[in-house]
């Protein structure tokens, strides 16, 4: 299989180029996963739309990063774990929480742990037999609406995890200090974590 083309505002279709320009304005650069998905304007639009819908949920920025990091780790996506480590740092996520997420160990915050367990159960078992995790999630203070919002986060991450893994999307320099691979445990994250 040929390597996937990483598009930018010069070589993407006019519609995809405009979308990439918006990503660049928002993030300061075009992450490679967006650049790869720009090979299909509908794929890029779907990814951007899912991201936008997830950002509209009532979950906090840190809670959204918990969902995205858990889903990415469960799907063995080094690219997305590294990227969301950077984004979690930008949200000022507690370092112990971040390390636990990267090593798939229990989180020190009980509410975030309930969120992580619910997310992990959904991804691992594809939604089957998640009743106990859902009960713990609600008991921790989350609502049934929050449970549906977690599904949006898992959906957006599944799309980028599959793309990243299937096409071996290279890690952006911006994420390099947070590289991750499945089973790594709790190695040093790099300079992005205080």
Number of helices: 9
Give the helix proportion (percent range): 55-70%
**Which class of the largest domain in CATH terms?**
Mainly Alpha
- Helix/strand order, N-terminal first: HHHHHHHHH
- Strand-pairing-aware structural class: mainly alpha
What is the strand tally?
0
**Strand residues, percent:** under 5%
CA distance, first residue to last residue: 40 Å
- Unreliable residue stretches: none
Under CATH, the topology of the largest domain is which? AhpD-like
User: What's the CATH architecture of the largest domain?
Assistant: Up-down Bundle
What would you report as the Rg, rounded to the nearest angstrom?
16 Å
Compile the SSE list and pairings.
Blueprint (H helix, E strand, L loop, with lengths): L13 H14 L4 H6 L3 H15 L5 H14 L3 H13 L4 H9 L6 H16 L5 H9 L4 H24 L27
Give an overview in words.
The chain is mainly α and 194 residues long. The protein has 2 domains: 1-56, Up-down Bundle (Single alpha-helices involved in coiled-coils or other helix-helix interfaces), CATH 1.20.5; 60-194, AhpD-like (Up-down Bundle). The protein is 62% helix and 0% strand. The protein contains 9 helices and no strands. The protein has helices at residues 14-27, 32-37, 41-55, 61-74, 78-90, 95-103, 110-125, 131-139, 144-167. Helix 4 packs parallel to helix 6 (95-103), helix 4 crosses helix 9 (144-167) and helix 7 packs across helix 9 (144-167). The longest helix has 24 residues, at 144-167. The chain is globular. The mean pLDDT is 92.
């Amino acid at each position: 299989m040929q390597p996937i083309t990483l598009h930018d505002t010069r070589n993407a279709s006019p519609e995809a180029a405009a979308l990439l320009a918006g990503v660049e304005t928002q993030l300061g650069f075009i992450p490679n996963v967006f650049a790869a998905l720009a090979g299909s304007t509908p794929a890029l639009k779907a990814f951007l739309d899912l991201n936008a819908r997830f950002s509209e949920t009532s979950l906090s920025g840190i809670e959204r990063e918990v969902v995205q990091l858990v889903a990415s780790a469960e799907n063995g996506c080094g690219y997305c774990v590294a990227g969301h480590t950077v984004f979690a740092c930008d949200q000022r996520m507690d370092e112990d929480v971040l390390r636990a997420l990267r090593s798939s160990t229990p989180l020190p915050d009980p509410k975030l742990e309930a969120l992580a367990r619910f997310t992990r159960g959904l991804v691992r078992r594809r939604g089957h037999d998640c009743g106990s995790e859902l009960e713990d999630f609600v008991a921790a203070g989350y609502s049934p609406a929050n449970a549906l919002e977690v599904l949006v986060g898992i959906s957006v991450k599944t799309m980028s995890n599959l793309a990243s893994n299937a096409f071996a999307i290279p890690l952006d320099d911006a994420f390099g200090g947070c590289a991750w691979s499945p089973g790594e445990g709790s190695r040093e994250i790099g300079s992005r974590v205080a």
